């Protein structure tokens, strides 16, 4: 059975909506900063920190993409974007990023997915709903 985690963009977030291309750019940024860390410690850290390739499927062209593993310890993670209507105000919509661990995903995939979720939530000052249904707040609360 697949599991999902959500990064919700709340009013206190750095931005209120996000596109699939912006999420891909954040993953490229993540790969870039981890490779710089690897250069500093003289180790190929980028390959270990991000053992995936971004693969865009035709059926999910505007809503999701696949992170396909380049290492045998991992398999794949699905990342998508969407919006949900607010319960209080039907006109107001909340954007979110959904990270899905499909059936067949390994424990390594789950660890990396948690790491990626925390990175995205921190970068966007969002509200992270983890796979275990716990919530982490990365925005300033009043």
Automatic annotation (TrEMBL):
Gene3D superfamilies: Rbstp2229 like protein, Rbstp2229 protein. It comes from the Bacteria. InterPro entries: DUF1885 (IPR015062), Rbstp2229-like_sf (IPR036294). SUPFAM superfamilies: Rbstp2229 protein (SSF111171). This is DUF1885 domain-containing protein. It comes from Lottiidibacillus patelloidae.
């Amino acid at each position: 059975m697949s599991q999902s985690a959500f990064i919700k963009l709340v009013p206190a977030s750095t931005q209120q909506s996000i596109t699939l291309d912006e999420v891909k750019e954040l993953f490229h940024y993540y790969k870039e900063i981890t490779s710089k860390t690897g250069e500093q410690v003289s180790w190929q850290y980028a390959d270990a920190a991000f053992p995936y390739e971004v693969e865009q499927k035709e059926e999910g062209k505007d809503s999701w993409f696949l992170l396909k593993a380049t290492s045998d310890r991992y398999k794949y993670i699905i990342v998508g974007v969407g919006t949900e209507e607010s319960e209080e105000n039907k006109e107001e919509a909340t954007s979110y990023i959904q990270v899905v661990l499909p059936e067949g995903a390994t424990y390594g995939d789950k660890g990396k997915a948690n790491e990626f979720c925390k990175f995205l939530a921190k970068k966007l000052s969002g509200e992270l709903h983890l796979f275990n249904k716990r919530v982490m707040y990365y925005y300033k609360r009043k």
